[in-house]
Amino acid sequence: MQKRQLGATGPVVSAIGLGCMGMSNAYGPADREESIATIHAAMDAGVTLLDTGDFYGQGHNELLISEAIKGRRDEVQLSVKFGGMRDASGAFIGFDTRPQAVANFLAYSLQRLGTDHIDIYRPARLDPDVPIEDTVGAIAEQVEKGYVRHIGLSEVGAETIRRAHAVHPIVDLQIEYGLLERGVEREILQTTRELGISITAYGVLSRGLISATPLTVGDDDWRGHTPRFQGDNLARNQALVAKLNEIAQAKDITVAQLAIAWVAARGEDVVPLVGTTKRARLKEAIGAVDVTFTERELQEIEAVVPVGAAAGTRYPAAMMAFLDSER
Questions:
Q1: What residues does the NADP-dependent oxidoreductase domain cover (predicted)?
Q2: Phi, psi (5° rounding) for residue 174?
């Protein structure tokens, strides 16, 4: 497994990370045993970066990871998002990143994960009621205490990144980045590179849109509530994927491998996070690490899916409002 360093001061991690959200029923029912087996397979293949959030399944995801890494904690780096609040039905009710909330959320995550430290800790979104300096300062206190090793950010814009980095070194920004979502290239990527901050990219397969076969979204799958998976938008996006699939077939790789490799090729400071709950899909994703492109192939991909080609926003309007990265 190839390695990449997160930021100028961060840990060395595998060139591809495993996003674990889907293992807590985010996209419909997930098989617990297969999810744990997938984490084990990832670790066996040299994947060291596991990404989660304390609100994934209201703590379920952290407990699952704890079970999977028991006895192997030193083989992985745990990246944890915090601050998302949900009610008993699972609906989001906002974000809380006050300093006292930082200490509280962290305490619960350490307990659920069965660990004495978290490698990269980050607010899931910018709390509009709390200055980012206060949040990062509170995490920095936990770094001094040894409960957190490094600080990351998630879905924030260039100004917020600069303000946060001025308080404590930020090692990576987690943000959606892929062939169908390139908003990070407008200003954010230039800022992170100037400051020596890496990108951990989620959504590289656009939540399953980029697939060799058309995706069917069930009633219990939250993707069905997002604009890119609805009506004419879905049809237009699947047409883009069909063209990408032709390029992938000509290169003798899968379209998912093409999409993952494209993100990895954006620079040594970019680490794709692949969210999967099955070992077969994981094996496919890991195969993308060794895929390279000629300049001509990159131009061909760009011509098929230029910036802004995707139809529909990546989240519903209410959730888009929480994205400082879109302001």
A1: 15-304
A2: -90, 125
Do the domain assignments include residue 43? Answer: yes
Tokens encoding 27: 């996209």
- Annotated catalytic residue 315: no
User: Residue 201 is part of a domain; what is its CATH number?
Assistant: 3.20.20.100
Please give the tally of structural domains in the chain. 1
User: Tell me, what's the pLDDT at 224?
Assistant: 67
Choosing from 56, 177, 202, 315, the catalytic residue is 56
Query: Model confidence over 183-219: pLDDT tens digits?
Result: 999 999 999 999 999 999 999 998 888 887 776 666 6
pTM comes to 0.92
Asked if residue 313 is part of any domain, the answer here is: no
Q: Which residues pair with 3 in a beta bridge?
A: 14
166 within domain boundaries: yes
Domain span at residue 119 reads: 3-210+259-292
CA 175/CA 4 separation, integer angstroms = 17
